[in-house]
Amino acid sequence: MTIPESGYPRAAAVSPRVQVVDTTDSTNADVVAAVTADPDAWPHLSVLVTTDQRAGRGRLDRSWVAPAGSALAISAVVRVPGLPVAARGWIPLAAGAAMATAIGAQLEGTGHEVAVKWPNDVLADRGKICGILAEAVPGHADAVVVGAGVNTRMREVEFPVATAMSFAAMGRECDDDRLLADYLTALDDLLGRLTAAGGDPDASGVREEVASRCLTLGAQVRVSLPGGDVLIGTAVELDRDGRLVVDVAGVRTPVAAGDVTHVR
Fold it and tell me: Domain for residue 86, yes or no?
């Protein structure tokens, strides 16, 4: 296993609870159940971590499985009682930007590019290195569990798809503790700013920061919508709700959910 013997001291300085397990089916499912059963035991920025997740889940009901020891699975609890419900769509987008910041800090000066594909897939050299899934906790309106899976020591022969990427494939060693601490710090900062601004993504600077990380903006895209329709056009902006606005022959259409492919 790649869990450090010393634990996660940097992350523990940021988080009130860092729980590490050798293996689990799904960190998100575990944390949602734990918060439901004992909410007081899981304050803001509490986190569950493993390097062996057997039945992880991604957006659009996709599965997320990685060989033991090859990836870091993280599920963090964020408490947002002061954030208006209408602004909570920014939580997963903020998580993507926060993880891009954390991954980018470890790759600084190496020539590798880190960015986000809308809504929150983190890319390194345009290959997916991290996926994120945010889930509300039933019965606890102010609690959201944000799951992230980061390909750390995954070899290219282990990639589930050709468009994946990992620290190992780039010839880099990931400092898991630093990654976790940097991610939680950046996520807390973004959500804190958004809450302090009453959920206003512009006054808080959150929309600008998320957009600055988003490789999708300006790209020609194909968007497969949940109902089966397809949009092909240019991604031109993020609206105030965090939706991707796609220009199709002069008609701008906001997309709240969908599978985005960069055409060029």
Answer: yes
User: Is the Cβ–Cβ distance between 104 and 112 less than 8 Å?
Assistant: no
Tokens, residue 211: 């957009």
The tokens describing 151, both together, are 């390909």
Count of structural domains, the chain: 2
pTM: 0.93
Q: Which domain holds residue 246?
A: 216-262
**Contact criterion met (CB below 8 Å) for 154 and 70:** yes
Tens-digit pLDDT profile for residues 102-143: 999 999 999 999 999 999 999 999 999 999 999 999 999 899
CATH code for the domain of 166:
3.30.930.10
